[in-house]
Amino acid sequence: MAPWNGTSPEMTAFRKYCLEHGLFLDVHLHTALIIPPLIITEEQLSEGFVVLDEALKITDKATK
């Protein structure tokens, strides 16, 4: 979603959507880093994947 060693509006939107929906992550240039705590429950993990899936759908639409 971003050029090597750069950023893009899609990556910015991806990060913003995730943070607004409770999925805390670090986005650096073209990389999204998600590190859940070791004590995460399966329910919390599932919720995070829902947010991540939706964020990727939104950015996919923006790149087409």
Task: Outline the fold blueprint.
Layout: H1 9-20, E1 26-28, E2 31-33, H2 42-63
Antiparallel strand pairs: 1-2
Helix pairs in contact: 1-2
TL;DR?
By secondary structure, this protein is mainly α.
Structure description:
This protein has 64 residues and is mainly alpha-helical. Helix content is 53%, strand content 9%. It contains 2 helices and 2 strands, in the order αββα. The chain has a two-stranded antiparallel sheet with strand order 1-2. The mean pLDDT is 87.
Keyword list:
2 helices, globular, 64 residues, mainly alpha
Q: Calculate Rg over CA atoms.
A: 12 Å
Low-confidence stretches: none
Secondary structure category: mainly alpha
N-to-C series of helices and strands: HEEH
Dominant shape: globular
**Helix count from the secondary structure assignment:** 2
